[in-house]
Structures are given as C-alpha cells and as structure tokens.
C-alpha cells in the first residue's frame, strides 16, 4: 500500500501562515479590547476617586498620586493594560473598602487599619454582615480574573527601540522617576502639604477617601495634643477637699450597653414601646440623661477608652482610633487605678475573645486585676444580655468568695444590640413582628429598611431592660452597698440610615445628633444626687462614679471633675475655651498623663 500523499496530511506553508495570521489578529483584537476596557475602568475609578475628593488640593494630590503610581506600573511591567488594571484594582478596592467602612463606622479606611484590622477576628465579624461578606467575596474573585489576563494577553512595549538593553534602561529610568514622584506626593512637607494635617473630624467625615488613607500614614504615631492659645496659669485644678468620701466602700458596677440610645430622641418614636424603663429615673437614681460620645456606628473600644481614662480618642488624631494598641499603655491615670488606690479589686468581664482588638492587653494596661474572657464562659457575638447576666453572676460569686473583704469595681459590656439589625420582623416577638412606623420616614423608600432595623433595635432594647432589672435586683439583694451605672457607647448605624431619622436632643448637644446616647447612675443606698446636665460628655463618667462611690480622686480626676462642673458637662465644645486650654495644659504638661 502506498503512503498517503503529503498534501493529504501536512498543512501547506500557506495554510499555516494563514492560521498564524488569524491567531495574531485575534490576539491583537483581544489586546485592543483589553486596553479599551482597562482605560475605561481607569477613567471610571479616576472619576469616582481623585475627581470626587472634596478640596482642590486633595483632588490634585489623589490625581497625581494615582497617575504616578500607574505610570510606575507601566514602566516596571511594560504592559499598558496590566498597569491600568492593577491601578484600578488597587485604588478601586480602597474606595470600596472606605465606602463600606464609612457606612458602618462613619470613618474611612486609614493606614493603621492595615495593622490593626487585618485579623481573623475581623474576618469573622465581616461574615456576620451579608453586604460586607458579599463585597469581600466579589472583590477577591474579580481581582485575579482581571489581573491575570491583563498580564498574559498584553504584549510588552518596545518603546520604539529594537535592542533589549536600551529598552531596559528606559524602563528602569521611568520606574525610578515615577516612583520618586509617588514618594514626593506622600511626604507631609512635600508638594501636596496642604492635603496633610487636616483636623481629625475633617479627615473622617469629608469622604476624601484616597487622601485620608495615604495622608494617614503620617498619623499612626501618637502625639501629645497641641496646646493652642495662651494658657491662663491662674486657673487651679486641685480640689480643696479631694479626700471626702464614705468610710464603707460600695461595690461599683459599670455596664457598657452596646449600640444603645434612648429611642425617645427619635421624632417618630412616640409609641408606648419607645418608653423603656431603663431610661426612666426612679428613687435610686442619682444622675442620668443624654450622653455625648465620640464615635458613631462602631468603635466601641474608643468609648471604653473614654470611660477608663477620662480622655477622648479624638484628641490624638487618627492614632486615637486605635487606643487599645497605642494609647492604653501610655496613659498614666486611669479609673481602675483610682479605685484600686482606695482598696478596690478591678474586674473586667468581656463578651468576646480577649484577643479582639488587643482587649486583654489593653485592660491590663488600664489597671484591671482580672480579665474574664467571653470565650472562657461561652459568650460570643450571638450572646444575649441574659447570657451576660449569667456570666456576671458566676464571676461575681467567684470574686466575692475569693475576696470577701474587698470592694469590687466591675466593668462589663453587652453585645446583643450590636448590628446588624436585620432579623426578619416575622421572627421577632410581638409587637415587633410587624412594621411599627408606617409612613413615618422621609423619604418613604426608607420605610421598610428603617422599620426592619428599628423593630430589631426595640426588641433587643426591651431584652436589655429586662436584664438590667434582674441585675439591679441581684445587686440590691447582694447584702452590700452598690453603685450601678449603665450607658450607651454609640448609636447604631443601621447601615448609615440612622442619619435620616430626625432627632430631638438638647441644644447643648450641638448639630451632631448622631453622637448622643444615654447614661443612668443609681445607688442602693441613700446619698445626695449628683449634678444634672443637659448633656454629659462620656469622659466625665469616671469622676461621676468616684463621686457616687465616695472614693477619693487623684490629681487627674480632681481636674476632670472641676472641668465637668465649670463646663456644665460639656467637654470639647465647652463654651469657655480658656478653661479647656488650661485643662489640657494641666493634664498633659503638668500631670504628664500621656507617657512617652
């Protein structure tokens, strides 16, 4: 048998060349489409990123930074689409993460988040929010689907040069020059110095996300607050009778109520279910009312810091947001130390892992003798206030048996009111199993969403009130004198919708009604009422507790109580700025409350 003709099995050179030409044409079309897509995506991110920054200086800063970073990627990779796609992915992910963080916590993504938030606990927390989880999954899926084709399908640029050596020199020089521009941009005293050193409030609220992130690298170090203006040295911050107090020390219990506020401040909340007894004063009440806090929607650890140190995290700029890491070890005067000086044993009962945001170490720095980890007692993110009360009773019994002759100072935190507030109404107990506020909100499209969130909030609030009634009965029946204080650490966000609900708050609260929660202080024994204030700043809760318990104040808490009286419960918005300047000079320069 003769072998088949060569023309039957072997492609002719003409056919092979045609197929190769078609393949080159397909690759060229694919590369062209890839570049068009990458360019359009880049322009879109540039529009919602640098061009959407608030101030002109910030627009220029973010625009030059993004352009220089992209040019650097282009010279380093010699691939146009790859450089554009990587820039889109990097800056786009930053914008998305900042938008989500702002919606939940009212702060953008800042540089310290890279160190303090990229933890396993944060991943578990993201898993509890469907929107955050979905966005995270989508981003993690899309990134490789964009970057890998952008590298493989793109053809390296030749820069108009035939030889490899000169091309390498062009790439090296271009990369060095554009990286130098990037480096110059992020210097606080560089060509865009006007974009740096913004006030903390402006940094976190004006939604200039790119500027906020890259300029915050210069704000990760804790700096002592700057004393502005002339200091009046004639103002004294020492009490004439600082040691006045009861001979028998009562136990003192402080309960931080997660995401809790009095719903009666909402203009729409006029129903009977909005009038909850935990906010009503009775014969045991010594003080109570609206409380000004320094965070919204999250950041409970900053309210813990304010309670335990009498300081506001916002004094320290962006670094203050990470108080459990960088401030707790440096504060010289703390509330636990003030109680321990009077013979108390300081105890913390934490509802989640003590590893969360460095809590265990921070509470040791604050001066607590014992820290009870929620994990050791079966508490987690799903625990109710009733679960916490069970653990409180157990710890209280163990501590009382081990230290029968020492008064106790106990701080504990609830968690059930933590967001999200999205359990379907049908799954809630009556009367919260149906919309309570039909047609009450503006715009009307928010009705369903806010009814869902408010229904969840009120249902959990009544559970909190029931727990506090049981806690009071337990403490009042303990056979010891007791001071009990509970307060809200911040308002819930409702994914940002909380801002849309009109609120009724005292004029002294100022325009930021989202910073108002509540506090309630009671005693089981007869004593004088403490001063009433239209609003009380959270930094004064410690000195209020010391007053109620009759515990002597150290130098810091003497000054803290004097400022409270002189500013009528207000702090950073104190009407007398001379007083405030003198107080900060005394605290940070005379008392050296922030250690080096």
How many beta-strand elements?
Answer: 8
The third-level CATH topology of the largest domain is Alkaline Phosphatase, subunit A
Number of domains: 2
Q: What is the CATH architecture descriptor of the largest domain?
A: 3-Layer(aba) Sandwich
Describe the protein's topology.
Layout: H1 6-9, H2 13-48, H3 56-77, H4 80-105, H5 113-116, H6 120-126, H7 130-152, H8 164-185, H9 200-205, H10 209-215, E1 251-257, E2 285-292, H11 300-309, H12 323-326, H13 335-341, E3 345-349, H14 359-366, E4 370-372, H15 385-402, E5 408-413, H16 447-476, E6 482-488, E7 516-523, E8 536-537, H17 541-549, H18 555-566, H19 577-590
Parallel strand pairs: 1-5, 1-6, 2-8, 3-4, 3-5
Antiparallel strand pairs: 2-7, 6-7
Overview of the molecule:
45% of the residues lie in helices and 8% in strands. Strands 4-3-5-1-6-7-2-8 form an eight-stranded mixed β-sheet, with helices on both faces. The radius of gyration is 30 Å and the shape is elongated. The protein contains 19 helices and eight strands. The longest helix is centred in the first third of the chain and has 36 residues, at 13-48. By secondary structure, the chain is an alpha/beta fold. It has two domains: 11-219, no CATH class; 252-550, Alkaline Phosphatase, subunit A (3-Layer(aba) Sandwich). Helix 2 packs parallel to helix 4 (80-105), helix 3 (56-77) packs antiparallel against helix 4 (80-105) and helix 15 (385-402) packs parallel to helix 16.
């Amino acid at each position: 048998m003769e072998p088949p003709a060569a023309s039957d099995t072997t492609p002719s050179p003409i056919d092979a060349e045609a197929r190769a030409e078609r393949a080159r044409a397909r690759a060229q079309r694919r590369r062209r489409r890839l570049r068009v897509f990458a360019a359009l995506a880049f322009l879109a991110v540039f529009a919602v990123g640098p061009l959407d920054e608030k101030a002109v200086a910030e627009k220029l800063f973010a625009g030059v930074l993004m352009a220089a970073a992209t040019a650097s990627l282009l010279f380093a990779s010699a691939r146009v689409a790859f450089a554009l796609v990587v820039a889109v992915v990097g800056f786009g992910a930053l914008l998305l993460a900042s938008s989500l963080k702002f919606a939940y916590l009212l702060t953008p993504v800042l540089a310290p988040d890279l160190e303090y938030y990229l933890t396993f606990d944060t991943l578990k927390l993201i898993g509890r929010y469907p929107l955050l989880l979905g966005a995270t999954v989508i981003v993690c899926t899309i990134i490789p689907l964009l970057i890998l084709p952008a590298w493989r399908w793109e053809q390296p640029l030749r820069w108009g040069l035939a030889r490899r050596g000169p091309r390498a020199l062009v790439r090296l020089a271009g990369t060095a020059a554009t990286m130098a521009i990037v480096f110059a941009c992020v210097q606080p005293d560089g060509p865009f110095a006007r974009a740096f050193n913004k006030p903390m409030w402006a940094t976190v609220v004006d939604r200039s996300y790119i500027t906020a992130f890259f300029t915050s690298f210069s704000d990760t170090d804790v700096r002592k607050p700057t004393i502005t203006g002339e200091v009046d040295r004639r103002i004294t911050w020492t009490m004439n009778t600082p040691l006045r107090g009861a001979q028998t020390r009562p136990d003192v219990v402080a309960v931080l109520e997660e995401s809790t506020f009095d719903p009666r401040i909402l203009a729409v909340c006029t129903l009977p279910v909005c009038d909850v007894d935990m906010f009503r004063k009775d014969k045991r009440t010594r003080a109570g009312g609206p409380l000004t806090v320094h965070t919204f929607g999250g950041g409970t650890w900053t309210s813990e810091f304010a309670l335990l140190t009498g300081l506001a995290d916002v004094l320290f700029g962006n670094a203050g947001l990470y108080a459990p890491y960088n401030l707790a070890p440096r504060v010289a005067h703390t509330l636990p130390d003030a109680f321990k000086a009077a013979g108390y044993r300081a105890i913390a009962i934490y509802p989640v892992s003590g590893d969360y945001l460095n809590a265990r170490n921070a509470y040791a720095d604050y001066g607590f003798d014992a820290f009870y980890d929620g994990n050791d007692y079966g508490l987690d993110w799903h625990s109710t206030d009733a679960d916490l009360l069970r653990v409180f009773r157990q710890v209280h019994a163990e501590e009382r048996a081990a230290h029968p002759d020492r008064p106790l100072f106990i701080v504990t935190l609830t968690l059930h009111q933590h967001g999200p507030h999205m359990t379907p109404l049908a799954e809630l107990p009556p009367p919260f199993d149906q919309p309570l506020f039909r047609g009450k909100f503006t715009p009307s499209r928010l009705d369903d969403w806010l009814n869902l969130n408010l229904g969840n909030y009120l249902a959990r609030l009544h559970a909190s009130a029931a727990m506090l009634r049981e806690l009071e009965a337990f403490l009042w029946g303990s056979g010891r004198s007791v001071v009990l204080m509970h307060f809200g650490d911040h308002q819930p966000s409702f994914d940002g919708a909380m801002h849309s609900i009109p609120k009724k708050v005292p004029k002294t609260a100022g325009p930021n009604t989202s910073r108002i929660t509540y506090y309630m202080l009671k005693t089981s024994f007869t004593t004088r009422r403490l001063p009433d204030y239209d609003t009380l700043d959270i930094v004064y809760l410690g000195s209020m507790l010391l007053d109620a318990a009759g515990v002597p104040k150290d130098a810091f808490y003497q000054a803290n109580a004097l400022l409270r009286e002189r500013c009528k419960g207000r702090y950073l918005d104190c009407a007398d700025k001379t007083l405030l300047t003198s107080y900060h000079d005394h605290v940070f320069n005379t008392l050296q409350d922030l250690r080096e």
